[in-house]
Amino acid sequence: MIDTAREVLKKHFGYDEFRPLQNEIIASILAKNDTLVLMPTGGGKSICFQVPALVMEGLCVVVSPLISLMKDQVDALRINGVGAAYLNSSQEFQEEDQVIEQCLNGEIKLLYLSPEKLKSSIPMLVRFNIQLIAIDEAHCISSWGHDFRPEYTQLNILKERFPDVPIVALTATADKVTRKDIIHQLKLKRPNVFVASFDRPNLSLEIKGGVKGKEKDREIISFVHRKRQQSGIIYCLSRRITEDLSEKLVASGINAAAYHAGMSADERNETQDDFINDRIQVVCATVAFGMGIDKSNVRWVIHYNLPKNIESYYQEIGRAGRDGLKSETILYYSLSDLVLLTQFAEQGQQRELNIEKLRRMQQLAEADICRRKILINYFGEAFEQDCGNCDVCANPRKHFDGTTLIQKALSALFRINEPVGVNMLIDVLRGSHKQELIEKGFDKIKTYGAGSELSFNHWQQFIMQMLNLGILEMAYDEGFSLKSTTMGKEILFGKKTTNLVYPVVREVKKTKVVSLDEQERLPAQTPDEKLFDDLRRLRREFAEREDVPAYAIFNDATLERMVSEKPQTETAFLSISGVGQRKLEKYGQKFMEAITLHINRGPRSQRSKGDTFKETLHLLQQHFSPERIAMVRKMNIQTVYSHIAQLYKIGAEVDLLKFVSMDEIEKVRLAQKAIGKSEQLKDYYDFLNHAIDYYKIRLALSWLERNEDV
User: 578 with 616, same domain?
Assistant: First the structure.
């Protein structure tokens, strides 16, 4: 059955081999074992249940959390020639009845349902020949997970009503506690548990602390301008930030939009649809813009603020580079983010758990060792080598003896002798003349201005390090005021020394608004970049015609392979990863034509006469008509027929009888006997009273020369 699964993989999805663990997971499912799969976003989770569903007899029911996600996945499956459908609240009764009828008739292999729809559909589902149940985003079932959804708790009914049907639960992010809870909640029977590597080496990781708002906005605008035509998401902590930032991006000539829970459902759907279909380049979103994004060509993700936990951060950066191409992630954070997120954690349920997860997120942000090492180890996977693709690896942190600097901060804190927050402490250290500080008499203490040589941002970063090292602590229940720990007192009184890390120095360049005219004058594209854009446009035409996302036709990684390998035959095109038989049949001809046209745009002076004949022969072998060859190669149709005649004469495999009949050849033979072997086509044309076209006379003469003995 695994061999059959591999055939299905190539036929419907265009891949020759399974990714790591997919083979083992599929084997487990085909053996009818309950299975739990932890695989990072972009790691190929869907293949793990879609391929077995196509190998097995009967129906696979897929529980998926969002209507938009269902539609995207069903559209992609249909493009690949797979019978797929969904049932959810967006459909009319007539459409539902049609889907049910198709399921009963065995026309549907994968049926997607929302968890809300599932419970009311049980009486209907028992009528179907269900052979597999897949639960996507399975972490939603656990209150220990980062995205708990109460409606997922009803899924425990599945094992009761379908005890002999294997269940596969899939998620991208779940710690050990959450994994155990998923198994318990779903009542899985001795499941096989597969944990794929959480490493996404194609994602670069960068974290920036203490960047002020205006400076941050300038950096982001400059970054997006450098990424023209690349899709990206900016995650923000509040609705207000999404709207303010999107307005600034639009004012800078960037096609951006906001997305948050305060918008109407229609507004959110429109924004998401525009982003998925490349009509919007950037979405500034709250975390509400999450699981519904199945877009493979997001090239970068920025966090405008610190996420509340590592699970959320990892899942959100996972939106980038799902196609495996190099993609960038940047996280900005500040102490104010930490204060606000701590307030949320204190007020919410599971207070202690949420505080601890936020603390781990803070440790990742403040780390002075390889970011990926911390991130991967958090999920229980040993990752010992530095990754070389994060900001710490790129710019190793330099340590210095920070004892004196720490003593200045702690001395000022003790001399103030009342609860103060981070900003006030920094103002005292820098010798600020703010009215509140003067009124409180803080300008009279001995350490007033003791740290004036450092910028506000640098002091912020140093205090964050002191918090992370346990030198300072924040009294969240006393207005987020700072207090010294026992370790801090030891340093203050000279009993202990401690190293700190030098802040990262950044060069910030002012960003101007780039007009459309200026964008047109940007550096010229290379030939391969031009071909990539041509293929993108062709993909967009198909996508708009079929009303599906462009990446459902071919993802960017597949287009890049086309650019690199430039396939011009069906065999070569089918060998491209991501091209299955159905897509070859539907799109192959047009994409190969575009590639061939690109090749023929090269300087003619660089191509010999033999080369130009070879190009015509190559197109003929791809079943191009002479008229289409003339159009693609921008030459006269008579020249094309001249090539065909010459190719046939020298023994090339050309079916000449497709263009000239034996009856016409026989008439040219008689003319040749009458007038002799003239080299002038006009002599034959006149002798035959203009009854046969010039190009057919040329073709007939080639046939006669090659077949003199016939």
Answer: yes
pTM surpassing 0.70? no
Q: How far apart are CA 228 and CA 696, in angstroms?
A: 51
Q: Residue 604 corresponds to which tokens in the numbers above?
A: 């003619």
pLDDT score for 42: 74
Q: Distance of alpha carbon 223 from its chain centroid, rounded?
A: 18
Do 232 and 327 fall into the same domain? yes
Considering only residues 464 and 310, tell me which one the structure prediction assigns the higher pLDDT.
310
Residue 511 lies in a domain: no
- In terms of Cβ atoms closer than 10 Å to its own Cβ (0-12, 13-18, 19+), residue 676 is exposed
Instruction: Please state, in angstroms and rounded to a whole number, the distance separating the CA atoms of residues 644 and 661.
Output: 15
Instruction: State whether 28 and 160 are in the same domain.
Output: yes
Residue 280 lies in a domain: yes
Q: Is residue 353 helix, strand or coil? A: helix
516: in domain: no
424 in the same domain as 344 = no
User: How is residue 221 written in tokens?
Assistant: 């605008």
Domain count, the chain: 4
The residue among 174, 195, 216 that closes a domain is 195
- Of 441-455, 543-557, 586-600, 613-627, which gets the smallest average pLDDT? 613-627
Do the Cβ atoms of 560 and 325 come closer than 8 Å? Answer: yes
Contact between 14 and 20 under an 8 Å Cβ cutoff? The reply is: no
- Cβ atoms of 410 and 491 closer than 8 Å: yes
pLDDT at residue 507 is higher than 60: no
Q: If we measure between CA atoms, which residue out of 350, 310, 373 comes closest to residue 173?
A: 310
- Supply the range of the domain harboring residue 461: 399-501
CATH of the domain at 249: 3.40.50.300
Lowest mean pLDDT across 87-101, 235-249, 415-429:
87-101
Asked whether the beta carbons of 543 and 550 are under 8 A apart, the reply is: yes
Strand 472-475, strand 481-484: pairing: antiparallel
